[in-house]
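Could you help me review a protein record that somebody else here produced? This is what I was given.
***
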Amino acid sequence: MGKKITTLRDLIGAIKDKASQSKAAFISKPSNLSLHLAVLRATSHTPSTPPDDHHVSALLSLGNSSRATASSLIVIIMDRLHRTGDSTVALKCLLIIHHIIKRGPFILQDQLSVFPATGGHNYLKLSAFRDGATSATWAISAWIRFYARYIETLLFTSRILGYFLSSFSCSSEKDKQEEKISSFLNSDLIRDVDSLVQLIEETCKVPDSLLLEGNKLLYEVIGLLGNDYLSTVNELLSRLSEFKERLNCLSFGESVELGCILKRLEECKERLCVLFTVKKPSIELLWNLVNELSEKIENLKIGKEGPKLLTFGKASESARFDNRVMKFGDSIRFSSGRYEMNNLSLMIVQGKKMEKVQ
């Protein structure tokens, strides 16, 4: 077994692992036996010990052989996750899924993304997970429920972006996306930013627990969350930088929506600084950009810095509303000069009428 057994719970876990391996050998198809054993080895009952890296690597390698094999492997992992009532096994299954997202081969990631589900809500079906064996496992159950929700949100965000957020194997897709961001519609950029902020909000819900001390499994979880956070920061930077360039081309409704999303992000800052103490230039740059955009959007809303608004005397609220409506449908590929000239002509005419009245 390779691990020292120190408690009765460890002994029972070791017996369960042996029994599971024997059961797999008895009921599995010959073609799937190696998959079952790989999953069992990577998700043993050994407490507070992350899956051995060579077991994880072996599992990822098996999933890279064919689409059928990758599909079977995902089904086996999910079956293991949904059948267990043991907090250690459940947490290790979630770690395996997270490792697939981060460093798995594309074919295995693809099968994970299309695994039968109704969507991002309760995708992993662990919202009711409870391990009441001890007070410690009861507390760890809260981490499992959080971690499942986080991975569900990570999968949802990755579907929105079109690639797995922090994946090594998706680097080429990310590069293509970076090149295309300038051609995105405003609505597409807002959708992306909103999904990324949702992921950050879910990250901030990590349980406050002293169990983190000395628990290598939970340290592994926090480490993966930290890597995802840095990836999310980079994704947000590229999109918010684009918004900075086109801020004056946003409709009133779009600027309000973006402002609300940025406010949600700012509300996460304090919690993030506690969770992740790492200092990175990209993180500082993000918060500076968020502050700058928030201030400019607020100025737009109160009329101090409108999108090239021209006023003659006291412009009525209805005139400002007409300007917003016309700009709402503007394509990001074209400047709004045509509408600005129309507005200019209209305002000049209105100005002359006012002079005659006077």
About this structure: Residues 216-245 form the longest helix (30 residues). The chain has a mean pLDDT of 80. The two ends are 96 Å apart (CA to CA). The CA atoms of residues 110 and 270 lie 35 Å apart.
